[in-house]
Amino acid sequence: MSLKAYDLTGRTAFVTGAAGGIGRASAVLLAEAGATVHCADRDADGLHETAALIKDQGGLARTHTLDVTDRARLGQAVRSCERLDVMAAIAGIMHRSPVLETRDEDLDRVLGVNFKGVLYACQEAARLMLAGRTGGSIITMASGAIDTGGPGLLCYGAAKAAVVQLTRTLANEVGRQGIRVNAVAPGWTRTPMTDRDDRAEQERTETRMARMSPLGRVGEAEDIAHAVLYLASDASSFTTGQILRPNGGVAMPW
C-alpha cells in the first residue's frame, strides 16, 4: 500500500450538497486527488464557486443545479455521468425543535432532504455502478447526532440514524458486486449549517463544543473531507458498512 491508493485519476465522483461546507470541501479534495467531480446543489451561485475553486486548481468539475428531493432530476444528473466511481451524498439541512413542539411538516421536510435525498442518491449511484460492473464507493453523511440524542435534534438525528441503517443495508446488498457503502458521522464542524446569526453566541457554542472534545477543538470542513477521500479511494478497499466518526473524540462507541 502506498499513497497511490488515494489517487482518483480517471475516476468520476458525484457530490451532493457541493455548494458549501463539507460538500464543497469534499468536492474540491476529490478533484485534487484526480477525480472528475459532478457537483450538485440547489444553490446555483455556490455551485459555480465550488466549480471555480476546482478549475483554478487544474481540476475537472461539472455542475447540476437541483434539489435532492426531486428523484427524477437527481437521477437524470447521476445518469449523465455515464460512468460513476464515487457517490458522496452529503446534502442536508438542519432543524431544531423540542420533541413536544415538533410538527409533521418539520419532520417531513428534514426526512425528505436528509434521508430520502440520500436514499435517492444511493439508489441512482448503485444502479449505475451495477450496470457498469466496475464497482465503486458510495459515501453517505450521517452525524454525531446518532450517538447523542441531543435536545432539539429529533428530526435531524432520526434522519441521520436512518441514513446509517440505509448504509449498512445497502452495503450488504451490493458488496458482492464490488460496491462499498460507508457513512461519515462528523462531530460538531464549523460550516454554514452550524453558523449562528449572533457572533457572540457562535463563539460560546464553539467554545462549549471544543471543551467536549479530547482534542480541544471543533472540526473544520476539510477534516471531514479527508474522511470522504479515504472512503472514496482504494485505501479503504476492505471497508464497507462502517460508520467513520471524525468527531474529535466526543463520542467513542464500541
Automatic annotation (TrEMBL):
**InterPro entries, alphabetically?**
NAD(P)-bd_dom_sf (IPR036291), Sc_DH/Rdtase_CS (IPR020904), SDR_DHRS6-like (IPR051122), SDR_fam (IPR002347)
Task: Tell me the Gene3D superfamilies matching this sequence.
Answer: NAD(P)-binding Rossmann-like Domain
The domain of life for this entry's organism is Bacteria
Please give the PROSITE patterns that the UniProt record associates with this protein. Answer: ADH_SHORT (PS00061)
Classification via SUPFAM superfamilies? NAD(P)-binding Rossmann-fold domains
Q: Which UniProt keywords apply?
A: NAD, Oxidoreductase
Annotated CDD domains? SDR_c
Q: Cite a single GO MF annotation.
A: oxidoreductase activity
PANTHER family, sorted: DEHYDROGENASE_REDUCTASE SDR FAMILY MEMBER 6 (PTHR43477:SF4), DIHYDROANTICAPSIN 7-DEHYDROGENASE (PTHR43477)
Give the family this protein belongs to, as stated in its UniProt record.
Answer: Belongs to the short-chain dehydrogenases/reductases (SDR) family.
Q: What is this protein called?
A: Oxidoreductase
